[in-house]
What we know:
Layout: H1 2-18, H2 35-54, H3 57-63, H4 68-74, H5 78-101, H6 107-118, H7 123-134, H8 143-164, H9 176-195, H10 197-200, H11 209-221
GO molecular function: DNA-binding transcription factor activity; transcription cis-regulatory region binding
Protein name: Transcriptional regulator
Keywords: DNA-binding, Transcription, Transcription regulation
Amino acid sequence: MTEQLREDSASTVVAQVRAPDARIPRRAVRDERPPAERILDGAEAMFAQHGYTGSSLRMIAASVNVSHPGLLHHFPSKASLLFGVIDRLEAAAQTALDRCAALDGDPTAVVDHIVDVLDPCSPANQLLAVLDTEAVNCDFPGRFRIARLRRVYEHILARCAESLSRPGGPRRDVSPEFVARALMSLAMGHAVRERSVRALQREAHHDDPRDDLRAIVVLLLTP
């Protein structure tokens, strides 16, 4: 009887040691990245949700737990923060362009690349769609760079479409530039739709935007 009590007591002690009290809050994982990177992450999220015009430096600072003076130490103005965000978007476009050059001769890989580059569900493309809309304002600080970035993506898409239209490929009676503009417009529109219509849907509607992009590529480039 005594031995049984000892075993029960020992088991209870072990269980208490192994099972932490759920009421004790866990220490938050510290973000070791440089503050400037965290600030840019916060700016991207805020600009995508509220637009450049609708976001403030204080809102962005609060979203990443940085003081307003701390943010100003890295980015002295909202425009400089916007330029940092656009730097990231331009770097992503350059990566997409470099990869496009390595895919020539593989139609399946080219189509997959088009869908990946234009994915309306990606945060980067949803951000670009919002900034592209704001670029209609002549006073928007990033107007030229955003317009140029859209043209870069159109160039990437035209290059992909051209590789699919070469002899032995699908069709040649559709201009690669037209395909590029059509795909870019569809992707930007779908990026907005994902943040509006999709957010209000309560059930599946079989309207995956990636499927739409793939269907348009086939429609435009297949005889």
